[in-house]
Amino acid sequence: MSRMDQREIKILSDILALVLEEQSGQSETALEAIKSRARRDGITGGALKNLFQSLAPHVDAQNTPRTAADIAEIRTLENTVHTLRIQLHDRGEILNRMEHNLRIVRGNNENLKSQLHVAQTAYAEANHKLGMKMMDSSYPRLMIISVAVIAGLLAGIAGTQLFHLFYAAFHPVTDNARYLY
């Protein structure tokens, strides 16, 4: 038998549907069309039967009665499917809880990031103000130090002069030049 393409199979199925139609004129015309196509393509009744069997290979398997082993296997598979559905449902709930917790953690993370940014900004501002204070306070400090040094020098010079003045007053200086000649 030659291999029929899908278009031919569709046409054949349409014609067969017309054969089973209740109106006798259409069913006779359709039956004649099937006969003429079969003669033209060289298809016998056995080949047509084989074609239908190859198109529907599972018809026999569906009509055979099931054995006790098949029924037990089906029940086992149904129980397995039921168990897997329960596990899938539980995992879905766990996943939903984890997604909810993840959203909460991300929100907390964003909140902490904003607080960190605020704290970093406040630290930078305080550090800047401290630097400005140190710059402002270093100028008077240098002036105070320089005034203290100058005052110390003047006090030292004055003290030395007073020492020499009192020393000369209480200790007369002898002229040693007379001993040289």
Task: Describe how the helices and strands are arranged.
Layout: H1 6-19, H2 24-41, H3 45-55, H4 59-63, H5 68-170
Question: Explain this structure to me?
Answer:
- By secondary structure, this protein is mainly alpha-helical.
- The chain has a domain of 59 residues.
- Helices cover 83% and strands 0% of the residues.
- It contains five helices and no strands.
- The model has no long low-confidence stretch (mean pLDDT 81).
Structural class: mainly alpha
What low-confidence regions span 5 or more consecutive residues with pLDDT below 50?
A: none
**Outline, from the CA principal axes?**
rod-shaped
Kindly report the average pLDDT value: 81
**Fraction of residues in H or I helices:** over 70%
Transmembrane segments: 142-170
Keywords: Coiled coil, Membrane, Transmembrane, Transmembrane helix
Coiled coil: 95-129
